[in-house]
Amino acid sequence: MNKLFVVAAALLFSASICRGQNIAHAAKIPENIEKLLQKHACLACHKADTRVVGPAYMEVAKKKYTKEQILELVYNPKPANWPGYPPMTPMKHVPKEDVLVIAGWINSLAKK
Predict the structure, then answer these.
(1) What pLDDT is attached to residue 15?
(2) How remote is the C-alpha of 56 from its chain's centroid?
(3) Are 99 and 71 within 8 A, CB to CB?
(4) Which of the chain's ends, N or C, has fewer CB atoms near its CB within 10 Å?
(5) How far is CA 73 from CA 60, 65, 68, 80, in A?
(6) Is 80 exceeded by the pLDDT of residue 91?
(7) Maximum Cα–Cα distance for the chain, whole Å?
(8) CA distances from 92 to 10, 24, 65, 70, 96 (A)
(9) Is the distance from CB of 31 to CB of 103 less than 8 angstroms?
């Protein structure tokens, strides 16, 4: 019985690792984008494919916002757009050019 438990646990652990690798591979963040996300603390609340405090970037991509709309929402968040999430703090300190680069990447996620 003990051996059966160990084998079952090992199989579950292996399956969870494989599943996690597939998810990570599906939403790989390019190095230049990851640097911007880290620089501006975006990753504290958002991940590529996982809900954290805010929606996953893949969920944002499904809304099909333009890059300019994403820029406006970063500077002036609209909590009504994301019911069930806490309101985002306006991120007006993030340079427009950086937001537009990040927004372009977010939009690319809708095609995957």
Answers:
(1) 41
(2) 4
(3) yes
(4) N
(5) 11, 10, 9, 11
(6) yes
(7) 61
(8) 48, 30, 18, 12, 9
(9) no
Sole residue written with tokens 């537009």: 100
Q: pTM to 2 decimals?
A: 0.75
One-letter-per-residue 3-state SS of the chain: CHHHHHHHHHHHHHHHHHHHHHHHHHCCCCHHHHHHHHHCCHHHCCCCCCCCCCCCHHHHHHCCCCHHHHHHHHHCCCHHHCCCCCCCCCCCCCCHHHHHHHHHHHHHHHHC
Which amino acid, residue 22? N
Q: How does pLDDT run across 36-81, given as a tens digit for each residue?
A: 999 999 999 999 999 999 999 999 999 999 999 999 999 999 999 9
